[in-house]
Amino acid sequence: MRLINRVPTPGLRIGLALLPLLLMALIYLSASAQRHAVNPDDKLLPSAAQMVTAVQHMGFEQDTRSGRYLLWADTGASLRRLALGLGLSAAIGLVFGIAAGTLPLFAAPVSPLVAVLSMIPPLAVLPILFIVFGLDELSKVMLITIGVAPMLVRDLEHQALQMPRELLIKAQTLGANTWTTITRVVLPQLLPRLLIALRLQLGCAWLFLISAEAIASTDGLGYRIFLMRRYLAMDVILPYVAWITLLAYSMDWLLRRLTARAFPWFAESGK
Question: Environment class of residue 124 by beta-carbon count within 10 Å: exposed (0-12), middle (13-18) or buried (19+)?
């Protein structure tokens, strides 16, 4: 059988997926052991025992100053900001994307503006956001929104324009007005695409969040990482990075499952 036609079994697929992670872990543990053999006080590559101790301290012991469990407090703060930013971005992307993709009079002024806005590096306007919205939650949420919403608008607009024109003509032939055509024909087609676009933007959203928290915040995963950087506390930084990665992957998995469950016809089409 040709290699191009070989499909791994479910068990083999899981094994192949875990293989790179196990190799990375072995390489890290080997390098860490070698560095600690030369210098037991080495902080660059903490051992697994050191990282477990740090996680236990950050996640399961109350902070003496604040009385909080720092890992969970930071996680809650970051997830709240991320949810607000992504939720606002999804609403903006859905409304403006559908409107630009179905209403030519609306697309004429909005599409070029969104194209220009999508080219502005969001981190470049972060100081402006801090000046306009202050250093509290709103500036961080707005950074995520500014970074993600234009991409969602452009993606959904493109998907709306790719819809067969015959569907819209048939709906109007059957008596549907503009609002009915959008809500009954266009919207169901674009909702699953919105979830996929959100999955594709998760990495960028986390980047914007961590950057904002690192510069101006008193809690959050990004704040804690950059605070620990001052003390070279890699035993805290590395578990935090791994935790962020796990959270992001879990969010991607949940969105993928939601797409398959809510829109099975879309998942089965292979899009």
Answer: exposed
Q: What is the DSSP string of 8-55?
A: --HHHHHHHHHHHHHHHHHHHHHHHHHHHHH-TT--SS--HHHHHHHH
> CA 267 to CA 219: how far, in whole Å?
38
Q: Which two tokens stand for residue 74?
A: 């930071």
Q: Is the pLDDT of residue 268 over 70?
A: no
d(CA 37, CA 93): 54
List b or e across 108-117, with b for residues whose CB sees 16 or more CB atoms inside 10 angstroms: eebbeebeee
Query: pLDDT tens across 215-262, in order?
Result: 888 899 999 999 999 888 999 999 999 999 999 999 999 999 999 999
Q: How far apart are CA 86 and CA 95, in angstroms?
A: 14
- 6, two tokens: 């070989």
Distance CA 257, CA 191 (A): 14
Identity of residue 151: M
pTM greater than 0.70: yes
1.10.10.10, 1.10.3720.10, 1.20.140.10, 3.40.50.1010: CATH of 59-268: 1.10.3720.10
Cα angle, residue 203 at apex, residues 27 and 81 outer, rounded to 5°: 120
